[in-house]
Amino acid sequence: MTSKYRAAVAGATGYAGGELLRLLLSHPNIEIGAVTAAKSAGTLIGEHHPHLVPLADRLVEPTDVEHLAGHDIVFLALPHGASAEIAAQLGPDVLVVDCAADHRLVDPAQWRQYYHSEHAGTWPYGLPELPGQREILAGTKRVAVPGCNPTASTLALLPAVAAGLISADDIVVVLATAPSGAGKKLAVTYLASEIMGSASPYQVGGIHRHTPEMEQNLVACGATDPHVSFTPVLVPMTRGILATCTAKLSDPSITADEVYAAYQKAYASEPFVHLLPQGVWPQTQATLGANTCHLQATVDPNTGRLVAISALDNLAKGTAGAAIQCTNLALGLDETTGLSTIGVAP
Amino acid sequence: MTSKYRAAVAGATGYAGGELLRLLLSHPNIEIGAVTAAKSAGTLIGEHHPHLVPLADRLVEPTDVEHLAGHDIVFLALPHGASAEIAAQLGPDVLVVDCAADHRLVDPAQWRQYYHSEHAGTWPYGLPELPGQREILAGTKRVAVPGCNPTASTLALLPAVAAGLISADDIVVVLATAPSGAGKKLAVTYLASEIMGSASPYQVGGIHRHTPEMEQNLVACGATDPHVSFTPVLVPMTRGILATCTAKLSDPSITADEVYAAYQKAYASEPFVHLLPQGVWPQTQATLGANTCHLQATVDPNTGRLVAISALDNLAKGTAGAAIQCTNLALGLDETTGLSTIGVAP
Amino acid sequence: MTSKYRAAVAGATGYAGGELLRLLLSHPNIEIGAVTAAKSAGTLIGEHHPHLVPLADRLVEPTDVEHLAGHDIVFLALPHGASAEIAAQLGPDVLVVDCAADHRLVDPAQWRQYYHSEHAGTWPYGLPELPGQREILAGTKRVAVPGCNPTASTLALLPAVAAGLISADDIVVVLATAPSGAGKKLAVTYLASEIMGSASPYQVGGIHRHTPEMEQNLVACGATDPHVSFTPVLVPMTRGILATCTAKLSDPSITADEVYAAYQKAYASEPFVHLLPQGVWPQTQATLGANTCHLQATVDPNTGRLVAISALDNLAKGTAGAAIQCTNLALGLDETTGLSTIGVAP
Amino acid sequence: MTSKYRAAVAGATGYAGGELLRLLLSHPNIEIGAVTAAKSAGTLIGEHHPHLVPLADRLVEPTDVEHLAGHDIVFLALPHGASAEIAAQLGPDVLVVDCAADHRLVDPAQWRQYYHSEHAGTWPYGLPELPGQREILAGTKRVAVPGCNPTASTLALLPAVAAGLISADDIVVVLATAPSGAGKKLAVTYLASEIMGSASPYQVGGIHRHTPEMEQNLVACGATDPHVSFTPVLVPMTRGILATCTAKLSDPSITADEVYAAYQKAYASEPFVHLLPQGVWPQTQATLGANTCHLQATVDPNTGRLVAISALDNLAKGTAGAAIQCTNLALGLDETTGLSTIGVAP
């Protein structure tokens, strides 16, 4: 007897959709129902994701309510702007897990400022590691999966903010990231010949849309009026985010040992945050394919700054893994069901 | 009649040595004399640098005074600690251009703190773009070529410091860099399988030896008691540095246009600093093989920080190109002789 | 009640050892016992394999009989030359699975010719897809895991040889491969700066040690006196083999459809060989981390040659995955236990 | 007084166009006139080629006869199908150098078979290393620049064919190549996330359009009715081709030394073909940015095959470098003017 939940994946032909399918294939309590896309409807999954051998012959259906209806769970891996309408039509009893930005921000003014459109409302935010967030996600029917960059920077800074070790008004986040975060967008910028052999920043000067989301998360960690200077840098790797986060210590006498102890305490029981042994720094390769964030933090006495660095797989813990982690919480399953902490390296 | 200067290259089999040879092959006023190495003496250049076709059959001789003597110029591309002794034996009339760190720092205490050995004295510092530095380098017989990371961060910050746009006491530099900066060092860290697909920080927390050199340069730009939080991140590319530098604006009302104007003014006549059109950010690929630093700067109004980003080729403008640029100045040649601003891309 | 088999992994700090551990962590019937190494004894697994979070604190013990004894299974991921002696000391009742070359070849003369040492004897060869090989592996206590290159080329050619579609006396195999196949060997050749941005052949002209193993396998497929011209080419990727195999058709009138039909028939029930839809060619990325070989074949009418191309992960189906596949057969478990056909991409 | 030739570059915003501009910037006898493109007319070169600093502010004009007229030389870096019409309008006195395929093939039937359109006629073929080809190119007003893959394979096989060492009826060419060969074509296949970490073949089974061009070149080397089985494999590097070519020896007793001697003799005075020391194999990295083809050849006694491997930069000697080499010949300049044999590595 099978009592599996049935999940549809909208936007199944993109990278986030493919990662959702990859992880769902290993999930013991969820079976894959409809897989849908816009332009690619009528093709087979094998044409888009040759790595998903068990789904090679699955037909891609159109992304519409007709094909998404009748599932227990609907994962949305669509461009932002599409989820509110779909969710409304699916009804309140379907678990809708949205990987796009539409329902992450609490403040409609911030949404308008950064996304230049009307705000579609706020859904429970899918970062279970935030204080009190698991209670909010338990049993929810709507999840706004965090952006990959905010997840990386929030997990790097949370213990320091929560323990009052830093002042949050002058945080600097510089983040190396992989082009798969942009999906299969066809632009010269993302061609292999442009990316290989190059490091290139983008959305510099406080204009990246993940900035208000980072700040909102820091408030959830206990910060008052946080300000983040965020610079993302594209580097030549298929997956991965390495977030270097620095912030002024609230007291220059705080030591590296105190910092480390705070991180140990904060993450002692987190299944998907891996604090490395003191002195060992994370690398993205170790997180490939895993729902894990690797972390380290210390003090730079020369500048009186905390330096905290996190590594994660932008498609896994950064997107699809987080989506499934939250799905587990929403369904009342063990949070770790179907998720691995083991990366594929080298 | 040939009136070329004759140059020896010590450490010719490493990456910095190879880049010196590559550039010297195109220099109209310098001919390559002895090429030397320690362990590889007796081999041919072609075994180490198959890209240097015209030197394929050149014999690598031992690195000792006997083989380095009798040249007008001696380039040292050796591990730090070796140059002082060699320079003393070559005599005061030979132009010695040292790519290692030995003679960069002015303060012996800083040397001891970061390098754990006795200071060998200070030589004229080979960053001609620093205020007044060309005069110091003109006619000199000793040049301390800057570290690649200090060159990138100094050029990114110089105009802002010189124009008083930022306070220098809380500068954050996060820098993506290529493994060729470590030379041909045999360590698991530098194996292709470890580097490809990964971003990994190292020497985190203010302990990297380039930190005091960066701060010393900022003093030369006009800063008082600068403090830099410096974090280097290895990324998978053969060459290149992308330095993301942020600092508090000295006055929060300073605008992006004012910043850009200051950079334009500062670098208007610099042959090897290329300020990009406003809004365009540098990428390392565009500098590959060229003696050029590409730059952009703006204001992040959300944090009241300047964000300045530079890109350069760590082996070219970061090391060997700078060495030749300074050699030109030392010899009284046109500073740009034999050097190109044109990168090889994609 | 746990009735798991207990496995030791010798050579656990290398890439093949790491992949064995990664796969064993997901195996429901095997638990990891001793993990051993030579020089790294006394360190922790987390220092070598930060991706294996659940094993981060496991102590690496010395590779000797004392530490390997007392297990049901011993995986050897050691340089060739070490396994025979260890196996003898472990006794006949322990399942010994050797990832090195020592016991692959049947012909001692070939061993001596290619490996320049005495032959240690032949063990059951761990390529279950060979005709009759599953019967040989069932219940065995010794397994010689195939070389990654012979696995790729044999699977690409097997159906054509078995069906008599090609003459085996003039086979050409040119194979793109990843540097992880060389393990953590410290040599300039394997430095990131040498590998990135380059394609470089090695062991050219019929001298690669995998050549006789390929030919031996083709005999097992039904060929008489096969001859393979084998050229491996290192390319910049962490994992993966793409084997382009061509051979003269035994009859120039053989069509692409006939070839495809033969491949379909040969691999219809193979769990770990994935014949792609006709006209679609394999790519290594799709096999990353999976125990799968992707395949396609066609006819080049211009030359009367079959062209068959296979892709696999050199560390997974090419080494550690094959080791576990054979272990399953040797233990009487379902052959697919603990192994996945799903790659991690992009 | 300047007596430079003036050159226009059509298709200047693509990769081949960019490489033409890069090389022309160093050419002492040619100055850059109009730079044109189709969709990008009205933009600046700096937007497309940030590495070409001296041309950053050059306006891109439309690709039409009005803008191309009035130059001594017109380089065409356009998709095939465009050059004949333009050339006709430019008149017979303008040197037109076409980097596309339109005028390479001699046999109209082959053109129709592979390109599915009408043949536009044959121009002098721009591979000066072919026997007698320099005479044909001297003073010509039309040049058909070879395809990058035919250049690599022809140079690898020429001495063996010319000396009668191989039979040309069963040649196998497997070639690792960089995605820049496809230009800035926007397709998922060429996205960084697809290319990095992967080796993927394309146009398999004798259908690649460079196949008849390879065979035509072998005829020019002296072969009768050559047949080439050609398989290109995309690998993750920005530039480079590594062509592994094998062919049956005409006599199995031919030795590796005889082969090497034939290659030495054939290329003794070729400025842009670099035969490596016996036993050393080429790698693409060593040719980056240079107009050089690196070569090695040997015998595989096990199969009675010659194995010859060439490496070159697909954009340099593979396209733009060859274009300028032929331009030099057509103009009566020294063939090596403005071209370098020195690569940029690592």
From TrEMBL, chains A, B, C, D:
Belongs to the NAGSA dehydrogenase family. Type 1 subfamily. It is found in: Cytoplasm. This is N-acetyl-gamma-glutamyl-phosphate reductase. Its EC number is 1.2.1.38. Pathway: Amino-acid biosynthesis; L-arginine biosynthesis; N(2)-acetyl-L-ornithine from L-glutamate: step 3/4. The active site is at 148. Catalyzes the NADPH-dependent reduction of N-acetyl-5-glutamyl phosphate to yield N-acetyl-L-glutamate 5-semialdehyde. GO terms for cellular component: cytoplasm. Keywords: Amino-acid biosynthesis, Arginine biosynthesis, Cytoplasm, NADP, Oxidoreductase. NCBIfam families: argC (TIGR01850). Gene3D superfamilies: Dihydrodipicolinate Reductase, domain 2, NAD(P)-binding Rossmann-like Domain. Pfam families: Semialdhyde_dh (PF01118), Semialdhyde_dhC_1 (PF22698). The keyword Acyltransferase does not apply. GO terms for biological process: L-arginine biosynthetic process. CDD domains: AGPR_1_actinobacAGPR_like, AGPR_1_C. It catalyses: N-acetyl-L-glutamate 5-semialdehyde + phosphate + NADP(+) = N-acetyl-L-glutamyl 5-phosphate + NADPH + H(+). GO terms for molecular function: N-acetyl-gamma-glutamyl-phosphate reductase activity; NAD binding; NADP+ binding.
